Amino acid sequence: MPISVRLPPRVEQKLAEYCVSHRVTRSEAVKQALDRLLETGAEKPSPWELGADIFARHERVKPTEDLARHSKRLLRERFRGKAK
Prior knowledge:
Blueprint: H1 9-22, H2 26-42, H3 47-60, H4 71-80
């Protein structure tokens, strides 16, 4: 199905550069981009999935002291390089 799209000059230039460097036609590049957009757009990750790598780091380490109670001191030590 043919479709027409107006692109701003900078986007058109980037598309042309991409096509030359990857040796694909403009149509093929647009098809691939739309395919990726529509696949990932349908499956929005949950907040947990977005931060899983950050959360997992803290699950492995058991705090030796009350982090909330001593947060100012711990941060001060961390910034001064005295952290473990």
